[in-house]
Amino acid sequence: MSAKPCRGCGKMVVFAKDPDGKWQVLDNTAPVWKQIGMKEGVARVVREPSAMVSHFSTCPNANDFHKKPEPAAPPADRHFSEPAEAP
Ligand SMILES: [Zn+2]
């Protein structure tokens, strides 16, 4: 498991592949708890140290990753002729 700094916030994150072969960026320091039962209406939980959280849900700069690439330039407007190039 190799950790690298997130290019959004600099926090160390783990890159791993899921069963579909997709890369996941994971935060291995976020506390994750697993419910193991209920007692008197209260959930009983234990820390799950091997579980990780998607860094997209913990990264303060996650929005930076959702930016779509700049759209391609629209086709040149053909209603007007191109300006003549300077000689
Ligand atoms: Zn980040």
Question: What tags apply to this protein structure?
Answer:
33% strand, binds zinc ion, mainly beta, elongated, 6 strands, 87 residues, 5% helix
Q: Give the radius of gyration.
A: 24 Å
Taken together, the total number of domains comes to 1
Bound ligands: zinc ion
How many β strands by DSSP?
A: 6
| Helix percentage | under 10%
Question: Topology as H/E string?
Answer: EEEEEEH
Question: What is the number of helices?
Answer: 1
Largest sheet strand order = 1-2-3-6
**By helix and strand content, what is the structural category?**
mainly beta
Content of β-strand: 25-35%
Distance between the termini: 60 Å
Regions with little confidence, pLDDT below 50 for 5+ residues: none
Describe the global form: elongated
Q: What would the average pLDDT be, to the nearest integer? A: 84
